[in-house]
Amino acid sequence: MADPQFSIQAEKLSKHFGHFTAVNEITFNVVKGEIFGFLGANGAGKTTAMRMLCGLSKPSSGKALIAGFDVYKNTEDIKRNIGYMSQKFSLYEDLTVLENIRFYGGIYGLSNEQLKNKSEQLITRLGLQQEAKKLVSSLPLGWKQKLSFSVAVLHEPQIVFLDEPTGGVDPVTRRQFWNLIYEASARGITIFVTTHYMDEAEYCNRISIMVDGKIEALDTPANLKQRFNVPSMDDVFYQLARGAQRTDN
User: Fold this and answer.
1) CB 3.0–4.6 Å: which of 21, 101, 139, 178 could bond 143 by disulfide?
2) DSSP of 196-249, one letter per residue?
């Protein structure tokens, strides 16, 4: 049953590929408007879990509600109520900045008037007035990432899923990108973000850490550092990974 305080509810959610278990009975809730970090090493199951939550991949077992919609029965409703930004740049390089905004706005179902107003607002907010009619391929990577995020929340979705959104950009641009995340969260949009930058975990309200398909820790960054008696999230992650290796051996 959907709980109105949560944007995401997952219970024993699993995904199997033959005999391989990519996601192993993960259970967690994400509060509306929360910035929720989903951490783990490459191969830990983060992207597979995110694809299930976005309605892009059917779970093998378990339950999940996204914005109140069932991941088995209501995948189209889920897609209409979320935004998504993949770790690979997701806009069209051979279209202009303005054409990309209008194209995706149309997909999201915005009216012509909404498209006009939101396009102008977005371009002004990002300071892209001089670049609006230039091809996206001409923009630096950091600007592409910020534009991609802004387009993902153009329709004011209930949740936006970000898969490694700051990979490959410089620290200053990463910080600017996180300012956009804070602004979206302040408007009530729930942020679900995967990252391998442990310092970015500090920017989240809560984080979960996946190891070998399982959630091994879930709490605020401060509480996790206190629990493991370490000064940084890098140390928390290292201890969890080392503990998993000992278990495997």
Assistant:
1) 139
2) S-HHHHTTSSEEEEEETTEEEEEE-HHHHHHHHT-SSHHHHHHHHHHHHHHHH-
